[in-house]
Amino acid sequence: MPAFDPVRDAVLNSPTTSSPNLARRATHLSVLLNSDPVPEKLSSSQAIRRTKSPHSSPSHSPVFSSRPSSSSSSTYPQPHLTPSAIDSPLMPPPSLPKPVETIPYNPTRRSEPGSILKPMSQAEMKMYETYRDNARPDVGVEQRQGSPIIGLKNFNNWVKSVLISRFALPALQASPYMGGNVPGRGSGKILDMGCGKGGDLNKWSKARVKELLAVDVASVSVDQARARWEGMKGHRYAASFASLDCYREPLSKAFSSHQLALPFDVVSMQFCMHYAFETEEKACRMLDNVSRWLRPGGIFIGTIPNAEQLLEHLHELPSDIDELSFGNSIYRIRFDEREHHGVYGHKYCFFLKDAIEDVPEYLVIWDNFVQLASKYDLQPIYKEEFHQVFDKNQEHQDFGPLLTRMGVVDANGESAMDEDQWEAANIYVAFAFQKQ
C-alpha cells in the first residue's frame, strides 16, 4: 500500500462514489501560524488537473474531501464589488468554481501520541507568560523549511492566501481613500493585528497594498517583522510597526492620530483572535479596535479554532479518565474541565510539535462571536473550515497552482503533510466580516 499522502492523492484521484461509512471527523487543531511564507503569486496561471486511473482503488487512494460537519460552511451575502475591482487583473474571480465530486475523508490512524503531557505547574505558567511576551526566536528560513511540520505550515499559508485574495484584495482595490483602482500603484490600507514575526508581509506585497499598520503584543516579534519588511524585495509599501496588547488597550495608544486619520480597508487577525476570548472585556476591546478605524464596507478576515469540533472530542472522552486530553503525534490538546459555564474563559492547553509548548488558549463560540460582532457593526459574510477551503479551491485557476508554488505539493503532486498534520490543520475555520 502506498504511503498516505492526502494532498497528492486529492490531486491524482477523482472520486466517483460516496462511502456510506463515515468515520468521526479528523479535524482537531493547527499551528498558531506566523512563519516565513514561501514565495507565492496571486496572478492567474494553469490550473492543477487531477487524473483518474481506472485501476485505482478507494482503499488505496485516500483524498481530501468534504465530510459531515458539526459546523459546516455558512452561506453569507458576499461583499459588494465595484466593476473596476471585479475587472482588475490582480484579483481572482470572486465566484468559486463548480463543486467537485467528493467522497468522505475517512483516514485510518497509523500512529499514536508518543507522550502524554502533564498539567502545567505555576512555575511553567509563569515561564509561558515570559515566552509569550518575548515571542518564539526567529530561527531563519533554512531551519524553518526543515521543520517536521513544514507541510502543515505551507498549507495554512495557502489557506490565508486564498482568504486574502478572495476578500481582502477586492476591498483594497475598491478603497475610496488610498489610491484604489489606480493601475500600477498600491491601493488600500491594512491593519495586521497580531502580526507576529511578519509572516504575511509578502502576501500584502503581492496584493499591492499601499499602507500597512502592524501590531503585536510581543515586542521581539514586532522587531523581527520590521526587520523583515526592511529587507523585502519587490513591491514596497509604507509600513508602521508597534507593540501593543490590543485586547487590553486601544489602538490609539500605539499609533498617532495622523496614522489613524484615514480608515482601514481591511483588518486581518490570523491564528490569534481566540486569545481575546479569555474574558468578555478583552473580546470587546479587540472588536472595538477592529471596527472603530475600519471604513464602512471594509473587511475583517481571520482564522480561529473551531470550538464545536474541540467540544465534540472533549465530550467523546470516557467519563472515568483523569486527563481530558486528545491529539496525535503532531499535536495535543488538554482541557482543564469537561463542563464550563458561560461563553468566555473556557481554557485548554495546546501543544504543537516544533512550534508551541503547551500554550493556554480559549474557545470562541461562533454564535456568541457573531452576536458580539454585530454590536460593532460587523456582519459575517463567510465561514468555512480549512478542509472546505481546500475542497472548493484546489482546482481554481489561481489557487490550484498556488498549492505548488507555496510548497503544499511538489511538481509531482506529492506533499510533506501526512495524515496527522492534515488532522491538526483542519480544526481551524477561516472567516470574513464586513463593516456595515
TrEMBL record:
Region (Disordered), start-end ranges: 1-115
Enzyme class, spelled out: transferase
GO MF term (any one): mRNA 5'-cap (guanine-N7-)-methyltransferase activity
EC numbers, comma separated: 2.1.1.56
Residues covered by the MRNA cap 0 methyltransferase domain: 147-436
Role of this protein: Responsible for methylating the 5'-cap structure of mRNAs.
Presence of the UniProt keyword Amino-acid biosynthesis in the record: no
Cross-referenced SUPFAM superfamilies: S-adenosyl-L-methionine-dependent methyltransferases
CDD domains: AdoMet_MTases
GO cellular component: nucleus
InterPro entries linked to this entry: mRNA_G-N7_MeTrfase_dom, RG7MT1, SAM-dependent_MTases_sf
Keyword Phosphoprotein: no
Gene3D superfamilies: Vaccinia Virus protein VP39
Record organism: Marasmius oreades (fairy-ring Marasmius)
Catalytic reaction list: a 5'-end (5'-triphosphoguanosine)-ribonucleoside in mRNA + S-adenosyl-L-methionine = a 5'-end (N(7)-methyl 5'-triphosphoguanosine)-ribonucleoside in mRNA + S-adenosyl-L-homocysteine
The protein's name: mRNA cap guanine-N(7) methyltransferase
Extent of Low complexity compositional bias: 54-79
